[in-house]
Specification:
- By secondary structure, the protein is mainly alpha-helical.
- It is built from 22 helices and no strands.
- It has a domain of 257 residues.
- The radius of gyration is 21 Å and the shape is globular.
Length: 423
């Protein structure tokens, strides 16, 4: 924890003039310093990321920014329940041999990785991208000459595919609700942009420095298709169908995922010990603690301060690129859900009728969520699956690989939004 304190003091020195000028309050500066220090330490891989984030939470409590009651309010149990439930289902699919079966089917096609990406892109339009990653990442790792490149393409496909429909990702729902956009209108406006930024992201990935790695082979290459195989397959289709119809069924995706995990755990018998071993408990802890950190930043009013400072500038279309890139940067370093909530509320209060701002906000939350491992839960889930297979992708390596895809997709999105605003 001492290194966190030292870095906090260093950042305090450089940010002190903002406090002295009355721009930042004491609490805002402390929260910002702790956030920056945590991100730097995670990128340096100085200690295990859970040690860093837990230390940051202790510092936030010690400095009086948050209390124990705040912690339980900041942690999004819906997201944790969704991730846990899908980890159980993904583990069951792997234990049943379903993943190996799909991999063998895809390998028989002329372009197996392309087909995997198309399926991931489409699935992500109807279920949260973390669900698509948990299902498709194990398959992608078994395809292509370089499993790291295959994994990166699936992460991009899941992230960009989430822009296809209103239910593709959580920020979509938040912004569309504030803008009062219908499902069909959302699809007609965002689907072209989703395809454009997906293609530009893949183009950027081709010129990125990709790690070379060999995957650790599975202990069991083929498994008999028994009752557990068909149970897992049935649950997969049931979960995807239920998530597509979640609005009509009036159930949350987390409830669907947890119900499927209950069925697996109840009927899996001897396989359950192996399935539970595939649950990444460290990832669940990290997600929880990082929610607390970003929640503390939100509590201090730092994001509202940024939003209010931009409001007077948003009356004209020339500010669209700045608005887009600011939200992209914020989504890359913080959870995109509170960012979507704050800025959609701001646009709603302004009665903003320049729709490029609304579509730009949605696109920014997706594009920014690609840059860092901590920018999106799906990124963390994909890297966790890779590590289980013997491939460890560090913070800096991941960021280097995703920087060009982010810039390429960001530039294409900026051009699209400007043309949309002018037309």
């Amino acid at each position: 924890m001492s290194i966190v304190i030292v870095l906090s003091l260093v950042f305090s020195y450089y940010l002190g003039y903002l406090r002295g000028a009355g721009v930042l309050s004491e609490g805002q500066m402390r929260a910002l310093v702790i956030l920056i220090a945590s991100l730097v330490l995670i990128s340096m891989e100085f200690r295990d990321k859970n040690v860093i984030t837990l230390s940051a939470v202790v510092l936030l409590m010690a400095s009086g920014i948050i209390s124990s009651n705040d912690i339980k309010n900041f942690i999004d149990l819906d997201v944790l329940g969704l991730v846990f439930g899908m980890m159980i289902l993904s583990g069951a699919l792997q234990e049943s041999g379903f993943t190996s079966f799909i991999s063998s089917v895809l390998r028989r096609s002329s372009h197996p990785l392309l087909l995997t990406n198309i399926v991931t892109f489409i699935i992500s339009g109807f279920v949260p991208n973390v669900v698509a990653v948990l299902l498709m990442a194990p398959i992608a790792l078994s395809l292509g000459s370089n499993p790291v490149y295959s994994l990166m393409t699936v992460i991009i496909a899941a992230d960009r595919g989430g822009l296809l429909t209103l239910t593709g990702d959580f920020p979509n729902i938040i912004v569309a609700s504030a803008a009062k956009v219908r499902y069909v209108d959302f699809f007609l406006n965002m689907a072209p942009l989703a395809v454009i930024i997906y293609l530009s992201s893949i183009l950027g990935l081709k010129y990125s420095p990709i790690l070379s790695a060999q995957i650790k082979p599975e202990r069991e290459e083929e498994r008999k298709r028994d009752a557990f195989f068909y149970l897992s397959l049935t649950l997969l289709f049931a979960v995807i169908s239920a998530m597509i119809l979640s609005d009509f069924l009036n159930v949350k995706p987390s409830e669907i995922a947890l119900l499927s995990s209950f069925v697996v755990l109840s009927l899996g018998y001897r396989r359950m010990s192996s399935v539970l071993k595939r649950v990444d408990w460290n990832l669940l802890i990290f997600i929880s603690t990082f929610y607390v950190i970003t929640g503390a930043v939100e509590k201090t009013g730092l994001l509202e301060l940024m939003a209010s400072s931009m409001a007077p500038l948003m009356r004209n279309t020339y500010f669209i690129p700045i608005f887009f890139w600011l939200n992209t940067a914020a989504s890359a370093t913080m959870d995109n859900i509170p960012i979507a909530m704050i800025f959609s509320s701001m646009l709603s209060d302004m009665k903003c009728d320049i729709w490029a701002y609304w579509w730009g906000l949605i696109a920014a939350t997706a594009i920014g969520g690609l840059l860092l491992p901590i920018s999106n839960v799906a990124n963390l889930a994909a890297l966790s699956i890779a590590e289980e297979r013997g491939i460890r992708i560090g913070f800096k390596d991941y960021t280097k690989m995703m920087l060009l895809p982010l810039l390429a997709s960001g530039l294409s999105a900026t051009l699209y939004l400007l043309i949309y605003a002018i037309i």
